[in-house]
Description:
By secondary structure, the protein is of the alpha/beta class. It is 43% helix and 14% strand. It has 13 helices and 13 strands. Helix 11 crosses helix 12 and helix 12 (290-297) crosses helix 13 (301-310). The longest helix has 17 residues, at 186-202.
Amino acid sequence: MSAIRFGLLCGSSPAMLSLYRQIERVAMTDATVVLEGESGTGKELIAQSIQLSGQRSDKPFVAVNCGAIPAHLIEATLFGHEKGSFTGAMRQQIGYFEYASGGTLFLDEITEMPPDMQVKLLRVLECGNFHRVGGSEPVQVDVRLIAATNRSLNDAVQAGSLRQDLMYRLAVFPIFVPPLRMRDNDRELLAKHFLDELNQEAGTSKRFSRQTMDQLGRHRWPGNVRELKNLVHRAFILSADILTLEIPPVGDKKIPTVVDGMLDFTIGTALADAQKEIILATLHHHRGNKRLTAETLGISLKTLYNRLKVY
């Protein structure tokens, strides 16, 4: 199977085809999007693909990792500050919201944002304006917001790290980003894609060993696409012609993988974990059709919704 490119994304699995359709639906709107998925699944690339597929494609795309900004600086970083508003503020400085005006602001790891800042973010989403730190005049902006998290929003609310009202405001259009283990044959396609890029840059024609290609479908990929890309790059540097990936053992964590359209479980996988993966994989197989998913699994639609809410 050949790879299907969509924006900056690459993959042909049912999970990715479902993702492409969701992006197509939401890209032409200004609806707030929240991406939920494990670390390394490519959430920023998805955010960029949403922008490239919409009416803001020629406008700024600004990415911010909320967990990387010190709590005492995040307000000035996002909203900017006026001269003299605090020690060291020698001149006026605009923030990321103003930089992104007309385009898209991507807030990664949104659940790491301090609670007091979440209140101010909620106001911006509701009103479309804010005050720079030390400023008295409102600043009006036109920003399409895309947020991302590697944890469940409901779990973050229950843990007290995310305000419930902000969760509802962010989740206008939630998108689940599938982990690599649920992307069927995409592992081989992505590995070849990354190798082709490296070969093109270096003017080489290196290739994978058959053993390596067989290993790709058996590994659980806890680091997802990021792990695969880094392993390919390392093997490219170390290999003269034929690449062999040094895939590290994951330990005792039992994570099922999708192989040729079938879930492959390790003996000892917890029943709750197996049930979760079966439900999510079936949902992706049926392209997000919840009624058909419930019928396939032999459960009621209400039970399916309850399970998805928990996940």
